[in-house]
Design goal:
By secondary structure, this protein is an all-alpha fold. The protein has one domain: SAP domain (Transcription Termination Factor Rho, Rna-binding Domain, Chain A, Domain 1, Orthogonal Bundle). About 60% of the residues lie in helices and about 0% in strands. Helix 1 (about 20-30) packs across helix 3 (about 50-60), helix 1 (about 20-30) packs across helix 4 and helix 3 (about 50-60) packs across helix 4 (about 60-80).
Length: about 90
């Protein structure tokens, strides 16, 4: 994956100053919960999804959080580089 920087000049893949809540809200705004479930296959996006319950699950489950962060990095990198979005 190429190095892409945000408007502050930080590498996107380092998630500098980006909270898990910011990441989740960004992904939900872009995809919605049904699409997130299709992309990541994490149950918190399929069964009674909400930002609050998803954050609780993701904070306690490192493998799920890693998947969400990876999707965010791929999406932001594609946007910054002008590539098709994942």
């Amino acid at each position: 994956m190429p190095d892409a920087r945000d408007q502050s000049g930080h590498l996107i893949r380092e998630l500098h100053g980006v909270t898990l809540a910011d990441i989740l809200e960004y992904l939900v705004a872009h995809y919605g919960f049904p699409e997130l479930d299709k992309h990541l296959r994490i149950n918190c996006f399929a069964v009674n999804p909400s930002v609050k319950s998803s954050l609780t699950f993701l904070r306690r489950t490192p493998w799920a959080r890693a998947k969400v962060e990876d999707l965010f990095i791929r999406l932001r990198t594609a946007e910054v580089l002008g590539q098709p979005r994942p």
